[in-house]
Amino acid sequence: MSVPGIGELGAAILLAEIGNFKDFSSGDKLASGLGLVPNVYQSADKYHNGRITKRGAKRAKWILTQISQAAARTKNSRLKEFFNRKKKSIGHAKAIIALARKLQR
């Protein structure tokens, strides 16, 4: 709850959805379990990243995006700076997902 944007309800939902953190060997595995990774389409030498996957914990993905929206609005925080940097290059919606992934790690 020390992270900007995470309150009691958000923390409780994340703990309930994720369960034991030791089940995931790395942050990337946790991101995959939550569905915060892109779909990958690969055929021969062509490689395409799609939208984020529909698999994973839907409530956890939803609450992380809500927390990201709140964290992006907090004044004088590193998370807001990260969001603004990403927003310039990839847009608002993708920057929110990037911030959600950063928060879950």
Structural account:
It comes from Methanosarcina barkeri MS. InterPro entries: Transpos_IS110, Transposase_20. GO terms for molecular function: DNA binding; transposase activity. By secondary structure, the chain is of the alpha+beta class. It has one domain (8-104). The protein is built from five helices and two strands. The protein has helices spanning 8-18, 27-34, 58-73, 78-90, 92-104, and strands at residues 38-43, 46-52. Strands 1-2 form a two-stranded antiparallel ribbon. Helix 1 (8-18) packs antiparallel against helix 3. The longest helix has 16 residues, at 58-73. 20% of the residues are buried.
Class inferred from helices and paired strands: alpha+beta
Number of helices: 5
- The Rg value, from CA coordinates, equals 14 Å
Any low-confidence stretches, pLDDT <50, length ≥5? none
Percentage of β-strand residues:
5-15%
Main sheet specs: 2 strands, antiparallel
Mean pLDDT: 87
User: Can you list the strand order of the major beta sheet?
Assistant: 1-2
- Shape estimate: globular
Q: What is the number of domains?
A: 1
Total DSSP E strands: 2
Order of helices and strands: HHEEHHH
Q: Estimate percent helicity.
A: 55-70%
Separation of the first and last Cα atoms: 14 Å
